[in-house]
Design goal:
- The protein is about 50% helix and about 10% strand.
- It is mainly alpha-helical and about 180 residues long.
- It has one domain.
- The strands form three sheets. It has a two-stranded parallel sheet with strand order 1-4. The protein has a two-stranded antiparallel sheet with strand order 2-3.
- Strand 5 and strand 6 form a beta hairpin.
- Helix 1 crosses helix 4 and helix 5 runs antiparallel to helix 6.
């Protein structure tokens, strides 16, 4: 995805990425990526440029868990009054959060904070939560994968605690007597 270099374009892209992330989560697909400001060339068959390389680098070496990181230039653009004015015009404005390990990411679960913008919110939320719980149950035997899904579950639960929706049930640690 790309957009013209404007505050409106930035808002549109951030909202589009958040929406795509939620839609894919409904289907049990977890998104990890990078969002970078810079030059990008794209045609129907080719995408290339410094922004693609930066986004790929962020996704492959920093993101590690299901989230879309934003680069420092984009993060800086978000602090301008113009961005805040533009974001206020959206029904569900883009939201950026800081992860515990530092990098800013697109808070795609922000939609859970404003349920009136979701179609069939109750069913959608149940489907997403069940998808996360199922992925957790399948991943307990693969620690590297479990760590990623657990991060998503904890992120879900932090937003759920704010909004009063049902938390993701985390697998319990059970001790076995030998």
């Amino acid at each position: 995805m790309s957009e013209g270099a404007s505050i409106g374009g930035l808002c549109h892209l951030l909202v589009a990425v958040a929406h795509a992330s939620v839609s894919l989560l409904e289907d049990g697909i977890f998104v990890r990526g990078g969002f970078a400001k810079g030059l990008l060339y794209h045609s129907p068959k080719v995408v290339l440029g410094p922004a693609l390389i930066k986004a790929y680098s962020m996704e492959s070496s920093i993101a590690r868990v299901p989230r879309v990181l934003i680069d420092a230039e984009t993060h800086s653009d978000l602090s301008h009054g113009e961005f805040k004015k533009e974001a206020d015009r959206w029904d569900l404005p883009p939201k950026i959060s800081l992860a515990n390990d530092g990098p800013p990411f697109i808070d795609f679960l922000n939609a859970l904070r404003k349920l009136e913008v979701m179609n069939d919110a109750e069913a959608t939320i149940a489907k997403m939560r069940t998808g996360i719980e199922d992925a957790l149950a399948r991943s307990i035997y693969e620690p590297a994968h479990y760590e990623k899904v657990r991060w998503l579950a904890l992120y879900w639960n932090s937003v759920a605690a704010e909004t009063g929706i049902k938390l993701v049930d985390l697998p319990l640690m059970k001790s076995a007597k030998l």
